[in-house]
Amino acid sequence: MRAARAYGKIALLISVSFSHGRHSVQDKNFDALAGKFAKNIYGTPKGEVRAAVLWRDLSQALTQLPEGPLRILDAGGGFGFFSQKLAKMGHSVTLCDISSEMLALGKAQIAAYEESSGEKLDITLLHAPIQSLTRDELCQFDLILCHAVAEWLSDARQTLADLTQLLKPQGLFSLMFYNKEAMRFHSLISGNFDYVAADFKVKKKVGLTPSYPLYIEDVRAWVTDWQMELVSESGVRVIHDYLKTHQPPNADFSQLLEMELQYSTHPAYIGLGRYVHFIIRWQR
Fold first, then answer.
1. 42 CB contacts (<8 Å, ≥6 apart)?
2. Pick from 192, 232, 229: which is nearest to 209 by CA?
3. Rounded distance, CA 116 to CA 248, Å?
4. Is the pTM of this model over 0.70?
5. d(CA 227, CA 224)
6. What is the pLDDT of residues 151-193, one digit of tens each?
7. What CA dihedral angle connects 63, 71, 280 and 283, to 10 degrees?
8. Which string of DSSP letters, residue by residue, matches 40-97?
9. Helix, strand, coil percent values for the chain (each to nearest 5)
10. Measured between alpha carbons, how far is 172 from 142 in angstroms, rounded to an integer?
11. pLDDT tens across 44-96, in order?
12. N or C: which terminal CB in the chain sees fewer CB atoms within 10 Å?
């Protein structure tokens, strides 16, 4: 079925059945952890760092796209932190997620904003795995976001490659993924040598620990294979996760945030980011 467009109202939650593609039971659905996950994403200092770096990068990316309302896809966007920000700027946004609970959180936040502001957002909520999204159903987008999704997918390379087919010519792909090398380094400096030696395999995995972290060089190679251009790259949390437990008495989060933004694009520190953010251009 064709996804509904929402003009001046929240679209009804659209559910898309998916039984014929590469969706795997191993891919993570956050229904059971929706509240905890949403809080951990942006309701903590580390979440504020993530939001600041991504929004800085996205704001710069928007200047490279045509003027006027853009068509934007937030693939695996959860409750739509950035979907909501972009819709408030006047863009037409499709927010897709496999978790109905995460989308319900987003729907409630959108409704609360519209009631308090009197402003109606052009945002469609689509309940579906991102592997089900096709150009025939959704047409093409100026900008696609895929943040902290790839590391939960059993076949990230193919899923991301399929997403790029939904871009307009010269469209941009905002891809943030969990950095396996930073995961290793953090474990090493924490003294978790057995965990590293076991290649991060444990009997009982923590709920929010990604199943399939990625190496930066592998993702760069994918970009090359897709014949796309890597426009920019940033490390997300290049400092925060390595801070000593006891900070100086004058420690100030605003200073930390300033340093995170300053060093997130420094070549020596990008690889230390717990996540890495690529802006990629589709050259057609």
1. 48, 50, 51, 81
2. 192
3. 41
4. yes
5. 5
6. 999 999 999 999 999 999 999 999 999 999 999 999 999 898 9
7. -100
8. HHHSSHHHHHHHHHHHHHHHHHHTTS-SSPPEEEEET-TTTHHHHHHHHTT-EEEEEE
9. 40, 20, 40
10. 6
11. 899 999 999 999 999 999 999 998 899 999 999 999 999 999 999 999 999 99
12. N
Residue whose entry in the numeric block shows the structure tokens 């420690």: 251
- H or E stretch including 174? strand 167-178
Measured distance CA(19)–CA(129) in Å, rounded:
10
**Would you tell me how many other CB atoms lie within 10 Å of the CB of residue 264?**
26
Cα gap 133→3, rounded to integer Å: 10
Q: Taking the CA atoms of 242, 247, 248 and 254 in sequence, report the sign of the dihedral they define.
A: positive
The amino acid at 233:
E
User: What's the CA gap between 177 and 124, in Å, rounded?
Assistant: 24
